[in-house]
């Protein structure tokens, strides 16, 4: 065991994450802090054990020369030791810099160079190989530490170290210098930078967002107060550690509330692990909720006729009154009775299958969620709410209180946050969770934070009569059709992605006379649909080009047009033409960010020939596109894409 630093007057303030960790080790030392599933078995660490491991890791890093102000790269899936590495770096006055684990080696070079990384802690052989591939481009990188030693036995580079070796070094260091770590933690200040999170870079190179201990602790405490979180709660941490949402929920809130963080065995076992843990607190971006809904719909299509009919009948009941019952609104007795029966036969078992039986609070953020998708989850009894924020605001600007959930808003400003709407509709934010600066980018910092201290979010929206914030779209993406109608592409795309057969959509229309769309089919959902109809196909390109599949997508778009026609503001932006892309939009091909946000400008340039074909009345267009494979190879995929017209629906009066 490593001797933990003794309590001090500084510790009582609990204003940095290392001091919070020491606090939990003292007051709930035997309670579970983290769990990880390994080889099918859940391993558990108490708060006291976590503090011991963090102390050993911090001292081991000090032995390797890590010091105050240094940046520590962290790369891998959600693993306890990688979370501990963040606090170990902070204990020494250093700054953790998590990178997206699915990024290819060349994508990592910019962050490694920009943050001037000397030491990197990675998960396994895959991540080690990436760093070895680009190490010559990153001369400052002196040490690479790895958690999982499998496959690395014959690697002989002297700068490679297993974490077990580093922890052993740290324990010796701690015995020889028992006061060292306590002194380092005491030197920490609440306004020190606690983490650098890089933006997704939708419009250029990513920027390093410097957030302080004070900012993230404020955000953590805010969420705890709003939702009544406590040390009995559980969360499943499976989203990228480089994403601000995971940092807020799995580190900031866990470290302030003292609840348990659970790490799944792998990306493939997340749903199984979710059901086993049964978390009380859950967070996912809209794409995860979209994928879960797609899986549900696929299973229902494969179910027997009676089960399928029962599902659809009670889902109509849920759509009619489920969200109102969850919000404790007045509902007719018959509907309440039918819903109770539906909960017994359909909704309860469905929540169990989704691993959401114990959830008290679920959040979604990171992108706009369609009202239809949002209503679906609330209608089956899951307390899904939206929050709003950016990396620059610790993802904590607006939250929906339990008794004020609106399908078309992201909630009210959190305590201490002030929101203004600029003349052009852009949302401006000021509050305690605002970033300190962009790392080494004073120009970008000055451009984003004005003289009054307001951060310019880049989102367009407005505050309604009750003070709820409603997001229209990214400010730069909101445009006008040639006829003057407002065009908000993300709003339309979210409606399209509610359908399980549509995985991604990109709409065009600014300065044009109509709206056209690119569609990515969902391979799983459409493949299942095709197999049940005896429709043979050889792969994605073949399936996407089938006449039957294109007709299926056209029917989905027609339903969206009906909904758009009922909205006076959006009636003129119905989709008039579309095509189904021959390949999936992919972060590896630079078409999406690592958080799966569409890079509109890049796509418009890359697929300009397809956009021209949509707007010049062509019925088909040949295209050949270069793609990158996971192993680094490049290839080409080509197809003759069919272009279809879609009828506009009658507009609301």
What does this structure look like?
Helix content is 40%, strand content 21%. The chain has 653 residues and is of the alpha/beta class. Among the domains are: 9-38 and 45-190 and 237-259, 3-Layer(aba) Sandwich (Rossmann fold), CATH 3.40.50.12780; 479-645, GMP Synthetase, Chain A, domain 3, CATH 3.30.300. The strands form 7 sheets. It has a 5-stranded parallel β-sheet with strand order 4-3-5-6-7, with helices on both faces. A 5-stranded mixed β-sheet has the order 12-13-14-15-16, sandwiched between helices. Strands 24-25-26-28-27 form a 5-stranded mixed β-sheet, sandwiched between helices. The radius of gyration is 25 Å and the shape is globular. The termini are far apart.
SSE diagram, text form:
Layout: H1 9-13, H2 17-27, E1 32-38, E2 41-46, H3 47-63, E3 71-75, H4 80-91, E4 95-99, H5 105-114, E5 119-122, H6 125-134, E6 143-146, E7 160-162, H7 163-176, H8 180-187, E8 193-198, E9 208-212, H9 213-227, E10 234-236, H10 244-257, E11 260-263, H11 270-277, E12 281-283, H12 286-302, H13 305-326, H14 333-353, E13 361-364, H15 371-379, E14 384-388, E15 398-399, E16 412-413, E17 418-421, E18 426-430, E19 437-438, H16 442-448, E20 455-463, E21 469-474, E22 479-480, E23 486-487, H17 489-497, E24 502-508, E25 515-521, H18 523-532, H19 540-544, H20 547-565, E26 575-580, H21 600-606, H22 608-615, E27 620-628, E28 634-645
């Amino acid at each position: 065991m490593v001797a933990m630093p003794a309590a001090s007057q500084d510790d009582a303030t609990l204003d940095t994450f290392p001091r919070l960790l020491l606090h939990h080790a003292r007051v709930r030392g035997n309670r579970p802090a983290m769990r990880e599933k390994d080889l099918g078995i859940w391993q558990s660490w108490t708060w006291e054990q976590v503090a011991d491991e963090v102390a050993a890791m911090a001292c081991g890093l000090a032995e390797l020369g890590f010091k105050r102000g240094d940046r520590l790269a962290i790369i891998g899936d959600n693993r306890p030791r990688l979370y501990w590495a963040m606090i170990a770096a902070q204990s020494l006055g250093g700054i953790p810099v998590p990178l997206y684990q699915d990024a290819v080696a060349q994508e990592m070079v910019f962050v490694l160079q920009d943050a001037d990384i000397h030491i990197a802690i990675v998960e396994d052989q895959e991540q080690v190989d990436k760093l070895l591939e680009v190490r010559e481009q990153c001369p400052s990188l002196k040490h690479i530490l790895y958690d999982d030693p499998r496959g690395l036995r014959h690697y002989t580079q002297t700068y490679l170290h297993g974490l077990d070796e580093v922890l052993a070094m740290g324990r010796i260091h701690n015995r020889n210098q028992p006061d060292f770590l306590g002194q380092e933690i005491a030197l920490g200040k609440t306004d020190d930078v606690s983490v650098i999170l890089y933006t997704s870079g939708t419009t250029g190179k990513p920027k390093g967002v410097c957030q302080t201990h004070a900012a993230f602790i404020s955000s953590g405490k805010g969420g705890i107060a709003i939702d009544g979180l406590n040390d009995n709660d559980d969360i499943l941490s499976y989203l990228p550690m480089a994403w601000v949402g995971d940092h807020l929920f799995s580190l900031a809130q866990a470290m302030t509330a003292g609840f348990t963080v659970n790490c799944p065995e792998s990306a493939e076992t997340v749903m199984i692990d979710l059901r086993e843990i049964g978390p009380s607190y859950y967070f996912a971006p809209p794409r995860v909720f979209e994928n879960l809904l797609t899986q549900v719909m696929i299973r229902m299509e494969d179910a027997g006729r009676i089960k399928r009919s029962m599902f659809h009948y009670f889902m109509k009941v849920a759509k009619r009154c489920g969200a109102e019952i969850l919000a404790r609104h007045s509902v007719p007795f018959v509907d309440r009775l039918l819903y109770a029966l539906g909960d017994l036969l359909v909704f309860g078992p469905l929540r169990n299958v989704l691993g959401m039986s114990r959830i008290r609070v679920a959040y979604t953020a990171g992108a706009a969620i369609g009202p239809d998708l949002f209503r679906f989850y609330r209608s089956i009894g899951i307390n899904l709410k939206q929050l709003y924020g950016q990396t620059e605001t610790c993802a904590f600007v607006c939250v929906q209180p339990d008794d004020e959930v609106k399908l078309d808003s992201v909630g009210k400003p959190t305590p201490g946050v002030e929101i203004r709407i600029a003349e052009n509709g852009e949302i401006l934010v000021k509050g305690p969770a605002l970033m300190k600066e962009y790392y080494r980018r004073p120009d970008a910092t000055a451009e984003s934070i004005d003289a009054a201290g307001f951060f310019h979010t880049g989102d367009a929206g407005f505050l309604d009569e009750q003070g709820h914030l409603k997001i229209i779209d990214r400010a730069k993406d909101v445009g006008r059709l040639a006829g003057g109608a407002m065009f908000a592409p993300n709003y339309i795309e979210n409606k399209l992605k509610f359908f399980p057969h549509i995985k991604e959509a990109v709409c065009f229309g600014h300065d044009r006379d109509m709206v056209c769309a690119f569609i990515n089919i969902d391979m799983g959902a459409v493949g299942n649909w095709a197999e049940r109809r005896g429709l043979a196909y050889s792969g994605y390109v073949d399936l996407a080009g089938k006449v039957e599949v294109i007709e299926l997508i056209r029917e989905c778009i027609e339903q969206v047009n009906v909904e758009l026609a009922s909205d006076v503001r959006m009636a003129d932006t119905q989709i008039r033409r579309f095509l189904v892309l021959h390949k999936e939009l992919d972060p590896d091909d630079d078409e999406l960010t690592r958080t799966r946000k569409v890079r509109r400008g890049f796509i418009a340039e890359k697929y300009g020939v397809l956009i021209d074909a949509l707007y010049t009345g062509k019925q088909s267009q040949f295209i050949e596109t270069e793609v990158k494979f996971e192993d680094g190879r490049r290839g080409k995929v080509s197809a003759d894409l069919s272009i279809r017209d879609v009828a506009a629906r009658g507009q609301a009066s």
